[in-house]
From TrEMBL:
GO terms for cellular component: exocyst; growth cone membrane; synapse. It comes from Caenorhabditis brenneri (Nematode worm). Keywords: Exocytosis, Protein transport, Transport. Belongs to the SEC8 family. Residues 1-25 are annotated as: Disordered. Component of the exocyst complex involved in the docking of exocytic vesicles with fusion sites on the plasma membrane. Residues 1-12 have a biased composition (Low complexity). This is Exocyst complex component Sec8. InterPro entries: Sec8/EXOC4, Sec8_exocyst_N.
């Protein structure tokens, strides 16, 4: 307690603040303490001082208790801190002592080194003198052991060390040890081993540059050959042994150390040949060895492939094996080219010669030309051409009578080994893409365009192959179009056999274009010729089926049909009528985009049927335009032929466009710039147009024939409706017991025959195009022909209604629809049964929406003619016609 008796008050313990917070807290506590002291000193009342004093003492005691408790709780931590401090202090003292000892030791070493420096210098001079003497003795010993060492190094293929040994030995004999007698024998031995070393280095380089790249690719074939067949051939057995030893000890087949080996060989040769002339001579010798080795390895490759494919005299290879062979040879030459490129870089650095790669590819081209000549059978052609002489020109398309320059080949034994399949000019299809890539590689590497191989192939293609293909195509298309119009009875009844055969020709030409793309313009010209010939043939077929015997001086719409002319063909040939029919939505849905169903409302369908019916009735609905049976196509085989012709040509057009679209981009670009001139059968010219445009034009012309066939079928079935329904307007005896007239039965029979013969040929959308709208047409015909009907009795009126019902029933069985348009025709004639002429006038206001003004006039006229009283009154019809016109005018 303080002297005033006031107990101190302990300060409240809070969480330890951050440095900034702590400073603020300290300042606040100092302010509080000053305030307490100020209150004690300035307070006048003793009691107030005692209260402040007691409060301070109480706080002091509480603070003391709190401090004791904290010290007690953290006593262990304080002790650990003291122990750690003592340990750190002791370690620092030890480190200082060790550093002092090291400093003393360094001073001692320095003093000792200074004392021994003079002694070491003296000993070094003595050692140099002894070393010079030993070196001379060692050189003599090395020279004595040089031949055996060179031999061992050659055996281990350490050519650089062997070359260094030879060079050093020659330098010693001719230099430092030239005055030593008795070294002539060693000199001759070293010279002999020098020549052996050069031969071994060249042999190794040939193996690395030619043999190993070729055999590396042959290993894949060797692994697939049964061991019993491998044992039958010495080379295959050696190659199999190499592959097994290579897999065990890491042979150079993997190519991991080929670059270092080539570098070692080149450096060894550079070491052995001091002058540029000597090095250049050795490179030329090496290239000649490489050329011979390429020929040998190609023969070995063919041999291995024959054994791998089990090809012998009894089992011949095919073009697939030839393609594999050429691809394999291309890969082998590419691998060898990489090795020659590495070798060429080193030779250029050493000699300044950059023709190593060029020399290799020239040798490779000669070898490839031999292989190609053997498989394309060029040499016998050349011999036959020389024998035939000038007479060969008469047989333009004979393959045997063409000539092409070919390189000289080896003996017949070599030819027998290098051929893997039967020689044929068409083998070029499978090998040309490979040769094309190879020619591009050659021209890129030797910077020479065109290369010799390209000139060789160009000569063969242009002088031999194109003419051969042209002649064979001419005979094949003649065979395809001869009797090819008949429908084949098979699972595919839609496509004509001639169409499939011509498409096969086009696919063959497409294969030639894609395979021999560099000559795409030549083969595409043949493609256009095939399409043009096919268009001419299809035009002839269509014209034979639709003979034109009308008077050409008259417009089609005014032409009087003869007894052998087909009405539907005349209408199809009429540009205005065909254009109008093809402008309707149902034509677009059926012919242009059959896979996309047309979206038409009932109103749109009604308007479309109305337009078509008005067009047909306006041309054929007159009484004087009577049809005879010869104007109709009654032979269902002809109907089926038109359908097959349509489907075939449409299918053909899709396939041809697919072939054109599948051409590679580079071929399309080439053909876009190639202009052609084509003369068609009708004398029209496709002049100065690109190849794709000419092909598309031919396809469109074929599709126009297809469209004409479909439109003809559409019109023909409607001609049958006219033919059978028109006689119903004539007077006839109604005493027959049949429910309907014979014409209705005949029409139903024709409709079923059409449907049965077309359903298996035409697609559903096209079949629907032909039969849709017949109900509306028949209804319009019944109403239209009512103007030509004579007076109808009650029985005749009922018979007309039954005829309408009969047509509706027969058509509904085909279309599976009610054909509600015929309900309107029945309602038309039902009005005759229930109403007199005046009664009809009375109901005109309510029937105005169901029938047109013309149809109501037909109805009123027929009703007047059928009335027993009014039919005999003069002016009765005119009077009621005026009343009808006034009623109709009021409603407007």
């Amino acid at each position: 307690m303080s002297e005033h008796g006031v107990a101190p008050v302990a300060a409240a313990r809070r969480q330890r603040p951050m440095p900034t917070e702590r400073s603020v807290a300290n300042s606040n506590e100092a302010g509080l303490l000053i305030n307490v002291i100020r209150s004690l000193t300035s307070s006048v009342s003793e009691d107030q001082r005692e209260i402040e004093k007691s409060r301070l003492e109480k706080g002091y005691k509480e603070s003391g208790v709190l401090i004791d408790r904290l010290v007690k709780n953290h006593q262990q931590d304080v002790e650990k801190c003291l122990v750690s401090f003592r340990d750190v202090s002791a370690k620092i003292s030890n480190c200082r002592e060790r550093i002092h000892n090291v400093r003393n030791a360094l001073h001692t070493v320095k003093s000792l080194l200074e004392l021994r420096r003079d002694d070491l210098k003296k000993l070094w001079h003595e050692n140099a003198q002894q070393k010079s003497v030993c070196e001379i003795m060692a050189k003599l010993e090395e020279l004595r052991e040089a031949p055996s060492k060179i031999e061992n190094l050659i055996a281990k293929e350490q050519y650089q060390q062997a070359a260094d040994t030879v060079t050093e030995s020659k330098a010693l004999i001719n230099g430092r040890l030239s005055r030593v007698e008795g070294l002539s024998h060693l000199s001759s031995e070293i010279e002999r081993f020098s020549k052996v070393l050069i031969d071994r280095i060249n042999e190794t380089l040939v193996n690395m540059l030619i043999v190993e790249p070729f055999e590396k690719h042959l290993l894949h074939i060797i692994r697939t050959i049964p061991e019993n067949r491998i044992n039958q051939n010495t080379y295959c057995l050696s190659l199999y042994t190499k592959s097994r030893s290579g897999s065990n000890n890491g042979s150079s087949f993997n190519g991991s150390s080929s670059k270092s080996r080539i570098i070692s060989c080149v450096e060894a040769l550079s070491t052995l040949f001091r002058t540029v002339e000597e090095r250049s001579w050795d490179v030329d010798r090496l290239m000649m060895l490489g050329k011979n080795m390429i020929d040998k390895m190609i023969v070995n490759t063919v041999l291995v492939m024959k054994i791998g494919a089990n090809i012998d005299e009894s089992n011949e290879g095919d073009s697939t094996h030839l393609k594999q062979l050429m691809q394999l040879l291309s890969n082998q030459l590419d691998s060898s080219s990489l090795q020659h490129a590495e070798f060429g870089i080193l030779v250029e650095k050493q000699l300044g010669r950059n023709d190593v790669l060029t020399s290799f590819w020239r040798s490779a081209q000669s070898a490839i030309e031999v292989v190609v000549s053997e498989h394309l059978d060029i040499n016998p052609l050349l011999e036959k051409q020389n024998v035939m002489g000038a007479t060969s020109r008469k047989q333009l398309f004979k393959f045997e009578n063409t000539a092409c320059a070919a390189p000289n080949t080896n003996s017949s034994n070599h030819r027998a080994k290098a051929v893997i399949c039967k020689p044929s000019a068409y083998n070029i299809k499978v090998i040309f893409p490979i040769l094309s890539r190879l020619m591009e590689t050659i021209e890129k590497n030797i910077n020479d365009s065109p290369c010799e191989l390209r000139r060789f192939m160009h000569d063969f293609v242009m002088r031999v192959f194109v003419e051969r293909v042209k002649g064979e195509l001419a005979s094949r298309i003649e065979s395809a179009l001869r009797g090819g119009e008949a429908v084949r009875i098979s699972t595919n009844k839609k496509i004509l056999p001639s169409c499939e055969k011509v498409l096969s020709l086009c696919k063959d030409i497409h294969d030639l274009i894609t395979s021999i793309d560099l000559y795409a313009d030549r083969f595409s010209a043949l493609w256009i010729l095939v399409l043009t010939d096919y268009f001419k043939n299809m035009t002839d077929v269509y014209e034979k089926m639709t003979p034109k015997t009308s008077d050409p001086s008259l417009p089609t719409s005014e032409t009087v049909l003869t007894r052998c002319q087909k009405s539907s063909a005349v209408w199809t040939a009429d540009d205005d009528i065909s254009r109008l029919l093809m402008s309707l939505p149902n034509w677009h849905a059926a012919s242009i985009s059959p896979l996309t169903p047309a979206v038409e409302s009932e109103q749109d369908v009604g308007e479309r049927n109305k337009r078509e019916s008005e067009l047909l009735i306006g041309n054929w609905g007159q009484a004087q335009n009577s049809l005879v049976e010869n104007n109709l196509i009654m032979d269902m085989n002809d109907i089926k032929m038109f359908a097959s012709l349509h489907e075939s040509l449409r299918w053909f057009g899709v396939e041809i466009r697919g072939l054109v679209d599948s051409l590679p981009a580079n071929v399309k670009l080439m053909l876009d710039t190639c202009m052609v001139q084509v003369q068609l059968k009708d004398g029209q010219m496709i002049d100065n147009k690109s190849v794709p445009f000419a092909i598309e034009d031919c396809v469109r012309r074929l599709e126009s024939i297809a469209d004409s066939c479909l439109l003809l079928l559409h019109i023909e079935i409607r001609v049958h409706c006219f033919f059978h329904l028109a006689p119903l307007a004539k007077y006839r005896n109604t005493s027959s017991n049949n429910e309907v007239d014979p014409e209705v039965v005949a029409l139903g029979k024709d409709l079923h025959l059409f449907h049965d013969n077309l359903k298996d040929v035409l697609s559903p959308s096209k079949l629907s195009y032909i039969f849709d709208g017949l109900g509306h047409l028949c209804a319009s015909l019944f109403i239209h022909y009512s103007q030509f009907m004579p007076r109808l009795t009650e029985a005749a009126k009922k018979r007309v209604c039954r005829n309408v019902w009969g047509v509706q029933q027969r058509l509904s069985r085909i279309t599976n629809r009610r054909e509600s348009e015929l309900d309107r025709a029945r309602a038309f004639f039902d009005l005759l049964l229930d109403n007199s002429p005046d009664g009809i006038l009375a109901i005109v206001p309510e029937k105005r929406l169901h029938f047109t003004a013309t149809e109501l006039s037909y109805l009123l006229a027929l009703s007047v003619r059928s009335d027993k009283v009014l039919s005999n009154q003069p002016g009765a019809l005119e009077k009621r016609q005026m009343i009808l016109n006034s009623i109709l005018a009021q409603k407007k």
